UniProtKB/TrEMBL annotation:
Organism: Bifidobacterium adolescentis
Protein's name according to its UniProt entry: Exo-1,3-beta-glucanase D
Keyword Disulfide bond found: no
InterPro entries: GH, Glyco_hydro_5, Glycosyl_hydrolase_5
Keywords from the UniProt entry: Cell membrane, Cell wall biogenesis/degradation, Glycoprotein, Glycosidase, Hydrolase, Membrane, Signal-anchor, Transmembrane, Transmembrane helix
Function: Glucosidase involved in the degradation of cellulosic biomass. Active on lichenan.
Family: Belongs to the glycosyl hydrolase 5 (cellulase A) family.
């Protein structure tokens, strides 16, 4: 399969909320995630907030901007309640419809990324409910997720803009679980609800992916055409997938067509793996770990780096302990430790080395297009502007793509 090289960006925090990217949306509540937000607001207030946010956060102009940066694709995280059938949450299929119309006007493609699951597939705040990871243990909810994928395939499978559908974002597997330290880092609001929380086994995940693939392609179910990709996330262990979907000859089995592997690689994760917090350390890690890894796995599947960015602790002036913010109780630097020129050099360097590493595969999606956090006037957020691609381009940290 020839996958056109993807140069893309995520539209995170549009249809799936992340508090750190737009704290004002959570004003007047103690909620840290989307699950608890509607429990603390009057229903009319909640609906007004959500609808206003969605209308203002991403619109046609944003697609024009993304095109002007030389990018050709967007990855759009969507929630499991996208079709509006899981009260009290508000569906957002109309917004995705608009995104397809904008994408087709401006010549961009869309990767639909099912970013959350009921009772969460990872326990992260971006999985919908913090500190709870039980979805894979609930057969009815597993079936519900499959039905959502089918409905998305039926609705968008023949749209010119569709690049593909990603089965589920960042399932928290037995490899990732000890590193992510979910139950400590993301404290559950309701311990009873969180009871039984735990990682997803790779055998289970592989079986689920194969089931999802067939349900997406099945003429009576999803009917996703063969020219649209089925994308699966590596569960934070890219080595696990060398024998996946293989026939007896070691090649991709003939019933599997246009399957793409998504891996998320952040410098903040590299830091937790022992990467030195220096510009040289980042460069060495990217060149000697990420680049060969992407090249090797591209022998098995087309590989995209569906999430990455320039963010790192050197740019923040403090050790972020794997990307933890003031919302997690971290202090954050009180003043810049680097000059503007030093910062530009740091970020241009990590941009160059990461873009070179991703070129060993089939493309990338930067996380994220924008965030609303004011990193200039709000104490503790120095360095977090690196998550916002628009701010990176404006400060000459990230090259406009050719």
């Amino acid at each position: 399969m020839d996958l056109d090289y993807i140069k893309g960006v995520n539209l995170g925090n549009w249809l799936v909320l992340e508090k750190w990217m737009n704290p004002a949306l959570f004003d007047g509540t103690t909620a840290d995630d989307e699950y608890y937000l509607p429990t603390q607001l009057d229903p009319a207030v909640y609906e007004a907030r959500i609808r206003t946010h969605r209308a203002e956060y991403i619109n046609e102009r944003d697609f024009a901007t993304i095109k002007s940066w030389g990018l050709n694709s967007v990855r759009i995280p969507v929630p499991y309640f996208i079709f509006g059938d899981r009260a009290p949450f508000i569906g957002c299929i109309d917004e995705l419809d608009k995104a397809f119309n904008w994408a087709e006007k401006y010549g961009l493609t869309i990767l639909i990324d099912l970013h959350t699951a009921p009772m969460s597939q990872n326990g992260f705040d971006n999985g919908g409910i913090s500190g709870v990871c039980k979805w894979a243990q609930l057969p009815d909810e597993v079936e519900f997720v499959l039905s959502v994928l089918e409905r998305l395939a039926r609705r968008y499978g023949h749209r010119r803009a569709l690049m593909g559908i990603e089965i589920i974002n960042e399932p928290n597997t037995t490899t990732c679980w000890p590193m992510a330290n979910v139950t400590e880092r993301y404290k559950a609001v309701d311990p009873e609800l969180a009871d039984g929380t735990g990682p997803i086994a790779f055998d289970w995940l592989k079986n689920f992916y194969i089931t999802a693939y067939h349900r997406l392609r099945d003429a009576d179910k999803g009917a996703l055409p063969a020219d649209k990709a089925v994308v699966f996330h590596d569960g934070f262990d890219i080595e696990q997938w060398k024998d996946f979907m293989r026939g007896p000859d070691g090649k991709l089995a003939p019933e599997f067509k246009n399957v793409v592997l998504d891996t998320h690689q952040y410098l903040m994760t590299a830091e937790t793996m022992g990467c030195p917090q220096t510009a040289e350390g980042y460069d060495d890690f990217v060149r000697n770990t990420y680049a060969p890894m992407i090249a090797e796995m591209s022998e098995y599947f087309p590989v995209i780096v569906g999430e990455w960015c320039l963010f790192n602790s050197v740019g923040c002036g403090v050790d972020t302990h794997g990307g933890q913010s003031v919302l997690n109780g971290e202090e954050g630097a009180q003043a810049e430790t680097l000059t503007a020129e030093q910062k530009r050099s740091l970020y241009q360097g990590v941009a160059e080395s990461q873009l070179a590493a991703w070129s060993k595969g089939s493309g990338f999606y930067y996380w994220n297009y924008k965030l609303l956090t004011d990193t200039v006037n709000t104490p503790g957020w120095i360095g977090w502007d690196a998550w916002d691609l628009g701010r990176c381009i404006a400060q000459d940290w990230f090259p406009v793509q050719k």
